[in-house]
Amino acid sequence: MFLRAFAPLLLALLAAQAVRADMPAAAHDGWGLAGHDPVSYFADGVPRAGRADFVVKWRGQMWHFASPENRAAFEADPARFAPRFRGYCVVALASGRLSPGDPTIFVIHGNQLFLLQSDAERAAFLADPEAMIGAARQNWQNLIGK
Predict the structure, then answer these.
(1) Three-state DSSP state, 116
(2) How far apart are CA 89 and CA 116, in angstroms?
(3) pLDDT tens digits along 2-43
(4) Distance of CA 71 to CAs 30, 81, 89, 94, 103, Å?
């Protein structure tokens, strides 16, 4: 009786873990933006180093902030400030490669943060951002199996 009652819940949990296992790990080994403050990209136009005393854990990563105000802004709407594609390079992803973006090479386009690997890839992205984002989105969907 116990097993019969909880079997659907157990199956749902196992299925959720399987889907999560297919999601690529975020770039930068558990540190959101390699320790840079995600809000600073939008507020200051440059990445600022986060501090160890202003930290939030979100989606399995530790996100560091330069100030308590930036931490509060992130906590209120983390998806607004987090980089697209979990911090992977949008140009690499558009061409079918999964490579971490460099948190110091970035573009804010459409109020979204995109990371790139090099200045050359940044220039390629800026030449046609909508096409790059579309191709990256398609490859991302194929990569995560959705």
Answers:
(1) strand
(2) 4
(3) 444 433 333 333 333 333 344 555 666 678 999 999 999 999
(4) 17, 11, 24, 31, 18
